Every structure is written in C-alpha cells, then in structure tokens.
From TrEMBL, chains A, B:
Annotated protein name in UniProt: Histidine--tRNA ligase
Reactions this protein catalyses: tRNA(His) + L-histidine + ATP = L-histidyl-tRNA(His) + AMP + diphosphate + H(+)
Organism: Plastorhodobacter daqingensis
GO molecular-function term, one example from the UniProt record: histidine-tRNA ligase activity
EC number: 6.1.1.21
Cellular location(s): Cytoplasm
Domain Aminoacyl-transfer RNA synthetases class-II family profile: 1-431
Family: Belongs to the class-II aminoacyl-tRNA synthetase family.
Length: 541, 541
C-alpha cells in the first residue's frame, strides 16, 4: 500500500469510443429486445449466446501485423492463440453451425442479441461497442426461408411500435444484379474473376444514385467523373450500350413507378403513400397462388418482377434471381405482406457484394429533421440477405443460410423519435422515498418501504446523511420520485405520516392558480395504517 | 479468393475456457435475471450497463509485463492505451461513481448484470467468461444500507424460486475480526501494517476450520502444522493466550449453538432446522426496537452479538463492529428477516480481506449429491459486503459503498437442482411444425403458420429439403415439437388437415396399452378451418 502513495491517481474515464448506459437507457433497450425475442420465438427461432471472444482464425481475420493491425477487431495473443472480440453475430454463427453440425436441428433457426466490438476510430455517433440483434436460418435452401425472414422483420417492427406505413422492407437479389452485369458484358459465368474491377466500380456507382443523380452515375459507368472540386474519379470504362443496360436497372424503380401510374393500377404519387390511401386503392388484391395474373390484377411486386425479367432475360442467373423474387413476393402476398410492407426494389444495393441471393433492407419512412433542420426519412434500421458460403470456410461444405441483423441503437432511436413526435415520451417514474427525520426510527422507516414493496410499489428509505432535510427532497427530485413520505416524532406519536405528492407539487409550483393551490394540497396527513392505500391513490392519479 | 485455396481451413472451435449457450440455457438464465431485476427495481435500484472494455488503469491493474502478464485480465494495447475486459462489475462501478459523481444521485443504488472475463487457466467448471449480477449502494454510510442489501438478497432468492428454509444469509463484520486481532495482540490500530503477515496466516487458518478441525487451526495459529503427507505449513507464531482469543472467535458459532440449547431458547439440533420447526419454536419473537432484551426474549442474532461483544470488549473497533451487527439484525428482525433468513455468523471469513465492514454470504442449505454420491449442502451462491475505499482510488475522497454479487451460473444450477429434486423439470416445448408434402403449396403452409402465430402459437413450416418425409418428423422430434401438421393433395382437396399429437404419440409408443392406443389416436383429421382450435386443444392438454 505504502508505495501506491507515490503513483498518480487513475483517470475515471470510459475508454475512447465506449459508452455507459444508465437507468431508462438500459430498460428501454431491454424492453425492445424482449419484444423482438417474442416475435422471433413465435416464428420458431431459438436463442443462441456465444462468447464475446473468438479465435482470430474462426473470425476469418488474418493475424494482426504491422501493416494491417487487427483489421478492425480488438485482438490479443494468449499463449499460441490469437483471440479477438467478435465484430458481428454472423461469424460466430458460422463457427457454431460448423462446430455443432451433427447436433443442431437442420434447418437451424437461431436468434442472437448482444454487443459486438469494432476496432475503428471513434467519432461522433460511432462507437466501438454496440448491440446487434440477428435472426438467421441455416440449412434452408428455399427462398421460403428468405420470405419468412422478411415477414418476421415486418412483424418485429410492428411489435416494437413502428406502425404500418411507417416502414418498408425492400428486397432485391444479387442474382438479378449479376444478370444485369452479364447482359452488360462485364460478368462471364465461366470466368467469375474477370471484370471484377469494373463490377466494383459499377456497384459503387449504383450505390451513389441518390447523391450523384443519373448523369453522375452514367459518367462513372463510362470514362469517369470530375466532381465540383475538380477531383477525378476513374470510371468503369463501359461503352454506351453497356452503360445503357446498367442504367435500365438503375432507373427501374422510377420507371416502374411511372408505368404503374400510366396503367392507373396504383396511383402512387410517392414511394411512401400513407397506409390508408394505399389500402383504399386495392393495390394488393391478391392474384392468388395459381391464377395467371393479367394486367388488371397484377400487384406492384409482380409488376416489378416482370420489368426486371425484361432486363435480364438473356442471363440464366438473372432469370433465376427474378424467379426467386417472384416466389418471395407471392409467398408474402398470400400472407398479407404486400408491397406496402415488403417491396421488391432493385434500388437496394447495399450488401450486394457480401450476399449471394436475396437481400433485404428495412427502412423507416417517417420524417425526422436532420442536423440542419431539414426533413428527411429516418432511413435504414435493419438489413440482411442470403449468404451461402460462410460455413463452407470451416467444413468445405456449402450450407445455405439467410438472415437479418437489426441495428439496435438505430431502432431504439427511431422509437424515441416516434414517441417524441406523438408527444408520448415516457419519463420513468422513480421510487417512493421514505425520508429519515429521526435516525433512531430507521427500523420503522424500513418497515414502511417493506409494506410498500409488498404491495408492488417501488420504494426506498433515504440512506444518505439525513441531517439536511432539503438534501433528502433534492434526492427525491433527482430520482424523479412521485411521492415522499415524512414521519417525525410528532407524527409518530399521533400515528400518522405526511405524504407529499411530488408530481402534483411540481405542477402546482409551475402553473397552478392560487385557488387550485388551496384546493389541492400537494402534502397531506394520513393515518400510518393507510400508508399504502394513500400512496397508491396518488400513483394511480 | 484463389490464394485461399492453399491455406488450411480454420478450426470451428469455441476458444479454450469459453462456452456457447443454446436455447433453454439462454432463456432460463434470462428468466432468472428478469426476476432478480424486478426485485432490485422494487428496492429502488437503477440499472447500469458499462462497456465490456475498460482501461487497464481504471481496472486498477498494472501494465502487463513479463513477470505478471495481465494479472488475470485479458488486456491488449491500443495506440498508447492498455485496454482490458472487465473482470468483475465492481471495478467499473467504482470508475462510474468517480466519473459521474456530480450527476448521479447520492446515494446511488445501481444493479448490473452481464458477463465478466477472467484470464485464468481454464479447467472443468472453470470458465473464462461468466455472468455476474450485482447490486450496490454507493454513498450510504449507514449500516441500514447493508441491512437493505441482505433483505433484498433474501427476497431475490425467494423470487427466483429458492423457498424459505432452503437458504440462509450469513453476516459477519470485518471490524469484529479486527477487534479479535487487536485483543489477541496482532493488530495495532496505530500501526496497521504491523503484524500483517501474522494476520494473513490467521485469516487463512480460520478459513480452513471445516477442513482441518479445531486442532489443525490451533496448530496454524501457533508454530505450524504438518499434514498427512508430511508437508509443513508455517504458523502465525501466536502464544497460547493469543491463540486462545482467536479460538474463542473461531468456536463462537458452535459455542453459541450450545448455549442457546442450554437456555432452551432455541432447541436447534442443527444449523439448518426445517423452517416450520423453527417457526414453531417462536425463536424470533421480536424483542422490539427499544426494549431491553432479557434472556427469555432474546433472539438468536441478539444472542450472537452479545457473545461476540464479550470477546472483543477491549477493542474500540471490535465493539463498533458488534454495534453494527446489532443494528443490522435489529433492522432486519423488525421487517421479518430473522435468524432463519439472515443470521449473524462469525464463521463467515471469505472476502474479509477485501471488505471493510459488514460481509454477507448467501448459502443454499438443501442437500445435493457430490461427484461421489455423498450428500452435501449446495453452498454459497452470492456474497458481498461493505468496501469504503474503491472510489477513493480515483478521487482521493472516501465514498462508502456496500453491495452484493450473485453467482449467476451457481444460482441457475441450484434452481435446476431444486426442480430436479421436485420432479418439476421443464423441457421447453418446441414449435408446431407444418410439414411440406407438396412444394408448390408452400404459400398455403405459410398461411397455416401465419394463423397459428396470430393466435400466439409458436409455429414454423419445415424449410429443409421436403423430399424425405421421415426427415421432417425427425426434425420435429429434435425440436421437441408438440404437434405436426400434414396436408397432402388429398387433404387439400377435401379441405382438411392431419394433426399429429407428438407428445401423446411419444407416450403411447412408450407405455400405452392396446386399448388406449385405439381410443386415443395420436393423429386425427380436422377441417382446415379448425386448424388453430384443434392445435390449441392439444397444447392445452
């Protein structure tokens, strides 16, 4: 101990990029995850909790070295092993699916919730530990599994409090994009590595449609693009004819929108028509599983699939992709998940480099104000898709898998925003505080909270230094306590307690008229025996 | 990708000392933690979730070096900082209490649940990641805070399913032990460092009473002890008179037991008399807060305190410790937590080196069989105490704190053991499985599970390859499904489904008579429209 005196005091600081969560931040997230787990459970998914630590080898990262230190994971060496904190919940699932392949049911539906860690430069809103919440089906080759994930995602969003019409789940298919690449002549099925660089540029260009507009994307497909600052970005070098194919795909969403309006099937003036209006149009009149849709009864999703089929008709892979999308939309439509909930949308490009089949993205469509006060849509809160190669790394055997990951912090922020907009923000009420007027009567104060707790009322005795009574009320205020109980020697002798209604007290102090002040005393006396009943009356308002 | 071909496949393995939790293991723990959180919440405690990663500095560990690598934590260097995974939930609390000291309410009651990591050699039953569940009160100097923790711990154990009489919370006080050391002449209040080595030996000797017996402890207090193998352990070198003082303390529990029987106050034949018997004795007749207890009305805890007071009466610290224990037992007794739930017990030594005041240990007293089939008590599931120096490391200012940590895995194992003994083990039922007879009718199968889920029934369509129907039933068995639904083309044409009661089926297969077999068919036909009602009838038994 003596030698410690010379050392400096440690800093009391959360490490850079990490956070502490207090009180309601913890309980709100927990409540949301509990609701999500209920939906996942109802769909037959089982929980899985892997350890936070994996071998670097299992995570698929190379050993850290000077040039690429840790590659985005927190890693360290233990004896001969390199260990690391998991950076997502998918890599551990792949390891588990391989490790326990003889014991797990197949298909294996599992959900997982928990923190993941990223060794990235921390910044505003960018943290090095955050929650993910995933559901995946391993071993189901049919796109029925993808459809199920989409339906479950829609149910999940509604279960946590995102109303219909405020979200849309967009679905695309990697195979359709591959078909487009094939037709445009930059993907050779017999030599998948060829034109990889070009495809990379095309993919990044498509993803920038919102920001650069059609002309900007066209420039990047061709020779390249000079931005306002004069910086030049090299293009994919496609010919005009090649670029035209890609642009057909890029423009598909707006073209589909235009054509749907032409045929007056769906008079949508925006991608996000209010739910009621959409419903009134009868846009989703189910075509039925086996009926041949004619143009008068085609659904929006069917229409989109037909349009995409035209673009990729010369590619086997492309047609396969469209077939899959059609199956997904038919399955979903039959269960009531039509284009107002789950929409086939070729504009979804994010994650296409990673996934091998259908991809999904859940977007919240209600508006919020950005930092500059401009309205914008809330945006993406979940994404996923089919990835058939992950388990193969371990076993050499391809295992089909599909799943979704919810951005827990994003979704929680969305729920708070919704409540704020609706004026239904919740400030969790604190415990009833029994104040200490007389230190020797602590047992009696403890008995009071004991009675309150036995009645299910959150309560505590003030356990700081009781000398300054003002501090006790300040404490009650800081805890957002609804009620304070006071019993000094006089009250004890009379067999009564003073009950202070702190909610009413705060309201009276801020807004009440003198008359109200008199008629509704925020503090009153009650017989000691009536303590619980009197407190309950206040809590029940 | 091409170059990967030459590298070997990664091993699909959980890192050494880490575990994966599946299905019911996750939900059972979650259910238990939820119940614990409810009790903590009712007592006014707020949740806190700190990040898994702390600076090594904040954890109070020295920088890893060759001689003491990591000292039991997983640590690594990021830029100039050493980071580490938290090894408990107390060190992060100390950091938080210091970091946010101007914003947090005082006293600050918080609970925390989550994994902690220990860099120890893994072994059977020894893991490097495990759950802890803590509740602490920071900033409450009064022992009323310690009493509250004990009461809350008792409520918690009962809430999760440990019945009264199957647990006991033992309470001791570091100050009483210090008093004993003072009286024995091996603690000088004016020079706390003096005799530190002797005290260490004494503490370790006391902790071995169960194993070594009275003579063994006496030997270790004196010159030393030779064990059966001939190995010699050096003793504390106390004189007979000094050792006698320590032995008075060591023998206190059995002596108290004997005296209580002498005065026929409590006819306890064992430390763990059945709850009912204890109650019938009226041993806990409350003496009242201010009445002077006479020998006829003294409670067991009061008796223990009096006995301890005799031993330490020449030590100011010792008397202070006994006063505190008396206050704790009086507060608890008044609320109904008498010696059958919370017992003052000088035999609690564990953790006394760490804590500065009262210490608690929750022990489960029901019997289990050890590896060799011999009955033994289940043992400790939680421990805690008062530690007034933790925050001081950061701020230089002493802040009183007291709390408890529940060993989550131990408590969960205890609950399972209780259920096993009571024959009420739960095997969680799996989802209803809708089998796939006809791939083209997938939408109809999906509609079935949709209806079941809408009625709150866990259900899924079989999503593996449907060709082999036997595999579908094997899957249902592996999932522990209660019901399978079958609808081929014939059934569809007739508008019916086949409903297979898998629970009944399993029972009939194993034990039914031929008559039962006939009268209770495990598979029956129902109109498609009655699907949900028919399934519900089976599930409700």
């Amino acid at each position: 101990m003596a030698k410690d005196k010379s050392t400096r005091r440690p800093k009391a600081e959360t490490p850079k990029g990490f956070r502490d969560y207090f009180g309601a931040d913890v309980t709100e997230r927990k409540a949301m995850l509990d609701r999500i787990a209920e939906v996942y459970h109802l769909y037959g998914f089982d929980p899985l909790e892997t350890s936070a630590v994996e071998t670097v080898e299992a995570l698929g990262k190379f050993l850290p070295d000077v040039d690429r230190p840790n590659e985005g994971v927190f890693a360290w060496q233990e004896d001969s092993d390199w260990l690391a904190l998991r950076y997502d919940l998918t890599a551990p699932l792949a390891r588990v699916a391989a490790q326990y392949r003889n014991d797990l049911p197949s298909p294996y539906r599992r959900y997982a919730m928990g923190p993941v860690w990223r060794n990235e430069k921390p910044g505003p809103g960018r943290f090095r530990q955050f929650y993910q919440c995933d559901a995946d089906t391993v071993g189901a080759p049919s796109v029925a599994a993808d459809a199920e994930i989409c339906a479950m995602l829609a149910d999940t969003l509604e279960a946590v409090g995102i109303p219909r019409g405020d979200y849309i789940i967009r679905v695309n298919n990697r195979k359709v994009l591959n078909g487009v690449m094939e037709v445009a002549g930059i993907l050779d099925p017999n030599d998948p590595e060829k034109f990889a660089a070009e495809r990379g540029i095309v993919l990044r260009a498509i993803d920038k449609l919102d920001r650069l507009g059609e002309d900007g994307v066209r420039a990047l497909l061709g020779a390249g693009r000079k931005d306002e600052s004069g910086d030049f970005t090299k293009g994919a070098g496609l010919s005009d004819a090649q670029a035209e194919v890609v642009m057909l795909f890029v423009n598909a969403p707006s073209e589909i929108q235009r054509r749907l309006q032409d045929v007056a099937l769906v008079e949508v003036s925006s991608e996000h028509l209010p739910w009621d209006a959409y419903e009134a149009l009868g846009a989703s009149s189910a075509a039925g599983a086996n009926s041949l849709p004619n143009s008068a009864s085609v659904t929006r999703n069917e229409f989109t699939c037909r349009y995409l089929r035209e673009i990729v008709q010369q590619s086997v892979t492309g047609i396969e992709g469209v077939d899959e999308l059609e199956m997904i939309s038919e399955l979903l439509d039959r269960q009531g998940y039509d284009a107002r909930k789950v929409r086939i949308d070729p504009s979804v490009v994010r994650g296409l480099g990673y996934y091998t089949g259908p991809v999904f993205e859940a977007e919240l469509t209600f508006e919020i104000l950005d930092e500059k006060g401009r309205p914008r849509q809330f945006g993406s809160v979940a994404g996923g898709g089919r990835y058939d190669d992950l388990v193969k790394r371990f076993t050499g055997q391809a295992v089909p898998a599909t799943g979704v990951s919810i951005g827990v912090d994003r979704l929680l922020a969305a729920l708070r925003e919704k409540r704020k907009q609706a004026g239904t923000e919740r400030k969790e009420s604190g415990p009833v505080i029994v104040t200490v007027m007389d230190r020797d009567r602590m047992a009696e104060y403890q008995a009071m909270v004991g009675e309150l707790r036995a009645a299910g009322i959150r309560a505590e005795v003030y356990l700081g230094n009781p000398k300054n009574f003002g501090n006790q009320l300040k404490y009650a205020d800081k805890r957002n306590s609804p009620v304070a109980i006071i019993q000094g020697g006089d009250e004890a002798a009379k067999g009564v307690v003073q009950i202070k209604d702190l909610i009413l007290g705060a309201r009276i102090a801020s807004e009440a008229s003198l008359e109200e002040w008199k008629s509704q005393p925020a503090q009153f006396e009650a017989p000691r025996a009536d303590l619980v009943a009197a407190v309950r009356r206040i809590l029940e308002g």
